[in-house]
Amino acid sequence: MTDRAETVVVIAKQPRPGRVKTRLQSRFSAAEAAELAAAALRDTLAAVRASRAHRRVLAWDGDPAGWDDGFEVVRQPSGDLGRRLAAAFRAARTDDDAPVLLVGMDTPQLTSALLDRRWNGADAVLGLSEDGGFWAIGLRSADPDAVFDGVPMSTDRTGAAQLARLASLGLSVELLPPLRDVDEPADAEYVAERYPQLAFSRRHAAIVGGRDRLPADRLFDELYAGGPVSSAPSAGRPESFLAGLARWIGPADSVDAMVVSRCEPPVIDIGCGPGRMVDALQRSGRAVLGIDISRTAVALAARRGGQILRRDLSTELPGEGRWGTVLLLDGNIGIGGDLPALLRRCRQLVGPGGLIICEVDPDPELAERVELVLAGAGGRSVPVPWARTGIRSLQQVSADLDLMTAEEWRAGGRAFVSLRAAT
């Protein structure tokens, strides 16, 4: 019986801006995050090529040109991560049930020695990651559907849940050394400092070298603390990003009350800032949760007694698929600079027939994408992808996502659109 992986599978997707490493975009632009993803993938593929595996498989999403040298390419199916992992194992399995090891593209520090480790007769191997997930999983003959079906993915308990599933199937498990996934800017810095020989580390150094750019949330912290923060497109004249600050940090006004009256609970307020809408919704008797990336904003909102989490929209959120209303106010329709992607994400949050209430630009024809740079006393931010959208652009995009315009209204110089998800 072969006691090391004879087939190594890398499950990955084409590193395109806005589609990979979105959590890195609190410090890096979408293009820079994609460059880091590409470098991490190159390091991973190099480690696999240097391993003793007889067969190398790339389970790929996107165009594999330029990435498939030395690899057999299989396409990832649609569906959740568990379904795609199971499909990758089925595609890689041989008749003799030789060990198959699968890794992702998030651990550029991976080595051929880790890939070639002996399984010590185990039925499966599992490499846990420091964020609670896992960076590698290997199987001999277990049914991959039984291994992955129903295991919650992309949480801080995924690794533990996956280990428990393997045990429940009666499989003996050999644990591989833990590794740190590169998901957040701090992860990227950690790996780059400790493994300077990597292509990933060289790209990271090239991007951050010679600049003193801060994560965007640091500038928002400064803003909500009363600091003088301005903004500009990455190649443009500074503009007042603070025009709405007095409204953001103050109590809800009569225009906000009109929004509150249209909300169907429970409500999730995206980019809630210091929590004026969370406070107003709670006072109205509606169940509400606010999320924001700024520590200062979350602290200010919590002082008001609001239910607030410091979260990024790209991470898993409580109650996905069960919210009655998603709020995108105060310019938050621009988050990420990609309106279709933002609306798709909000569509995932609401339940059937749920509402997405958006504040849009008063110019109905406006549709532009910029990269903002925030500047404060503490320095300048990395470019932040942002969109400015009027109602016409919003309606064109929402129609393709089974979102119907339920209502549009103007008040106090502000413009709003309510979209209802199809049932």
Automatic annotation (TrEMBL):
Residue ranges annotated for the Methyltransferase domain, each copy included: 267-354
CDD domains named among the record's database cross-references: AdoMet_MTases
Signal peptide: none
Record protein name field: Methyltransferase domain-containing protein
Lineage: Bacteria, Bacillati, Actinomycetota, Actinomycetes, Propionibacteriales
